[in-house]
C-alpha cells in the first residue's frame, strides 16, 4: 500500500498522529476549546453509522444518507435507485464540506455538498485522494470540483527518483500541505536524508523547506506542530513557519506521549493504564505545566478527538464493563477535570453534565463546530465549540 493510500485509511479512523512515512489528510479538530456546559443530546433517529462534516452531521440509515445540522435538524436525504450506501466507504473530505459516498454495486465514488446534499461530481476510480502524485508531479485537487488546484515538481527539492506515491507523500492539514521524500536511497531501498517542504494549502506557495539527516524522521502531531526525531532528541517546529519551538531528549518521553499543539504533550509513565498514578502536561522545553492524579480504581483513556484547548478522555471503573463509562474533559491550562457525560457520578462524586453512558472505546467525531459524542445507549450528544 502506498504512503498516501495508507494515510487516507488511517485518517478515516480519526487518528491524529501521522507518521512521516505516510501521506494524506490529518484528522479535523475544533480549533479552540469547547463549551462543555452546552452539551446536549441530538435526535438522529436509528442509524447504522454516523459522522461529521465541516457544517454538520451525517447518518447512514438503510438505503439512505441523511444530513443534519449540529443541533440535530434534518437538512437533506440522499438515495440512489436500486442501491445502498456502503458505510465503510462513506467519508467526509476533511477540511472541506464534501461527503464522498460509494454506492454498493456501483464503481467508484460520488461527491456531495455536505451542507445541501447536492451532487458535485463522480469518479469510477476505486480510491480518491485530494493529494497525490500524477505523472511524476505532486498534485492537489479541489474536492468541490475534482479539478487540479496546483502541482509541484519533486525534483525541485532533490527528491530521489522515481517520483511515485511510494516515494513521495503529501500530508494535508487545514492550512498547510507538507511534502516528504527521500533525497537518496540506501542499498536496500530505504529512504535517507528526507526532504521536507511546506506549502500554503490553497495556493501552493512554498512556506519553508529543510533536509533531514540520515534516518531522521518526523511526525505531524498537531495542527500547528511538526516534531523531528533526530538522534537522541525531539525537535519541535512550527508547521507553517518552520521555526524551532523547543527540543527535548527522547529518553525522557519514551513512555506514553499524547502530543498537543505548540510542542506540548500529555505524558504518562506507562502504556499500561493500570500502572499509571498521574499524568503530566509538559511544555516544549520539558517543564511541567500541571500534574493530574489518576485514582487506583479508575481507567482514563485519552481520545484523539480532543480539540486544542481541552483533553477529552473516557473513564471507566476498573471493575466495570467497557460500555458503562464516562467522558471527561481536562482544561489544558490548569488540568481541571470536568465530568461531561456518564451514567452516574464518578468515584470522586463528580456529577455528569449530561446523563448518558459513553463506551471506553467510543470514537469521538470532531469538527469546527464541536464534537459529536456517541452514547453507549444508542443516543448521541453534541459539545459545541467555545
Structural overview:
With about 375 residues, the chain is an all-beta fold. It has one helix spanning about 5-10; strands at about 20, 25, 40, 50, 55-60, 65-70, 75-80, 85-95, 100-105, 110-115, 120-125, 130-135, 135-140, 145-150, 170, 175-185, 190-200, 205-210, 215-220, 225-230, 235-240, 245-250, 255-260, 265-270, 280, 290-295, 300, 310-315, 325-330, 335-340, 355, 365, 370-375, 380-385. A 5-stranded antiparallel sheet has the order 1-19-20-21-22, with no helix packed on it. It has a 5-stranded mixed sheet with strand order 2-15-16-17-18. Strands 27-28-29-30-31 form a 5-stranded mixed sheet, with no helix packed on it. It is flat. The model is unreliable at about 1-30 (pLDDT under 50).
Structural class: mainly beta
Strand content: over 45%
Radius of gyration: 22 Å
State the major sheet.
5 strands, antiparallel
* N-end to C-end Cα span: 39 Å
- What oligomerization state is this entry in? single chain
The number of helical segments is 1
Total strand segments: 34
What is the typical, i.e. mean, pLDDT?
A: 86
- Segments where pLDDT lies below 50 for 5+ residues? 1-29
Assign an overall shape: flat
- In spatial order, strands of the major sheet run 1-19-20-21-22
Helix content: under 10%
Secondary structure layout:
Elements: H1 3-12, E1 18-19, E2 24-25, E3 40-42, E4 49-52, E5 57-61, E6 64-68, E7 74-79, E8 85-93, E9 98-103, E10 109-113, E11 119-123, E12 131-134, E13 137-142, E14 147-152, E15 169-172, E16 176-185, E17 191-200, E18 206-211, E19 217-222, E20 225-230, E21 233-238, E22 244-249, E23 256-259, E24 265-268, E25 278-282, E26 288-293, E27 298-302, E28 310-317, E29 326-331, E30 337-342, E31 354-355, E32 365-367, E33 370-374, E34 380-384
Parallel strand pairs: 2-15, 30-31
Antiparallel strand pairs: 1-19, 3-34, 4-5, 5-6, 6-7, 8-9, 9-10, 10-11, 12-13, 13-14, 15-16, 16-17, 17-18, 19-20, 20-21, 21-22, 23-24, 24-25, 25-26, 27-28, 28-29, 29-30, 32-33, 33-34
